[in-house]
Prior knowledge:
- The chain has helices at 3-15, 29-44, 77-86, 105-115, 149-159, 168-180, 192-203, 208-216, 221-234, 250-256, 304-311, 329-342, 344-347, and strands spanning 18-22, 48-53, 71-72, 89-93, 122-127, 139-142, 236-238, 243-248, 278-284, 291-298, 315-317, 320-326.
- By secondary structure, it is of the alpha/beta class.
- It folds into 2 domains: 3-215, inorganic pyrophosphatase (n-terminal core) (Alpha-Beta Complex), CATH 3.90.1640; 221-347, Diaminopimelate Epimerase, Chain A, domain 1, CATH 3.10.310.30.
- The strands form 2 sheets. Strands 3-2-1-4-5-6 form a 6-stranded parallel β-sheet, with helices on both faces.
- The longest helix has 16 residues, at 29-44.
- The protein starts with a helix and ends with a helix.
Amino acid sequence: MTNGQLSVLLERIERSQFVTCVCHVNPDGDALGSTLGLAAWMKRLGKECRVVVPNRFPDFLQWLPSVNEIIRYDKKPELALSVLRQSDLIWICDMNDPSRALEMEPIINECAERCRNEEDGFMVMVDHHLHPKADFCNMQISCPEMCATCEVICHLMWQLGELLLITAQEATCLYTGMMTDTGAFTYASNRSVVYECISHLLASGIDKDKIYRNVFYSSTPNRMRLVGYMLYVKLEVISGMNASLMTITNEERRMLGVKNGDTEGIVNMPLQIQGVRLSAFISEDTEHPEYVKFSLRSVDDFPCNEMSARFFNGGGHKNASGGRLKCTIEEAVEQFRKAVQEYRHLLQG
């Protein structure tokens, strides 16, 4: 950020009293890490700060500091609305467009309209996704080259002279977001500055090994059975295309006792197969069964985000992206096969 932008932001933080941090629907590690990390930072600065999320988040993130203070819109819509309406500073975290909040989109748009008169509030986007919606917030801190929104916050704290003051609670949240959004630093994390950020987080006293275990070694028996089922029964390696596909229906979720978050990370597993460059996980939406969700992962230079935007009404990052269509799972599979054919020159290359 420029010195001018930093000056404006610092002034807005100093003026604020009621702060709210918001993220996208189905919050992942980076969404929760960025909102909880920012909230902890704001509280350290003496602000009254709340975190509002659209809906449920995975069980393997339930250990995060202050997670019990999160307000879920799907559970307490009136409280969430009240908190947002009284906020004089709103952080929009890991979300480049209000549509990514789904049912909360009208509320966020209402807040954005109120904040157009900056005397009535101020809204800041902090994000790392491509193509942020123009004029969505009063200030956009958008850095698509960074591995996670939590990394963006690390850089922001450094510029404001706050990173050396970071607490273990703040650092735990930010490290979690960076770790989960890079697959434990196996993709989108080749820049040396990523590890400079991590060194500052480690200096706060966090236990990175425990964070890793909390996220990746917290499977239930049903989660382990699900992994076996997906790999043995549902995995399809598309012949000659260096691509793989797995699907799961809501009926299969019920049969296997799958809970929210149990499917996390399964899409990465087929990339261990020699030659596979693209892996897709297609699932019926648990909350909106008329929709189907796409999760894509790739290696090397295959552009998941481009495929997601063209075929699945989605987007994301080059090696990790997603999308959502209103269709049956059978139609979703056919759409994926069509996309694979369109990108065969890259998949076979």
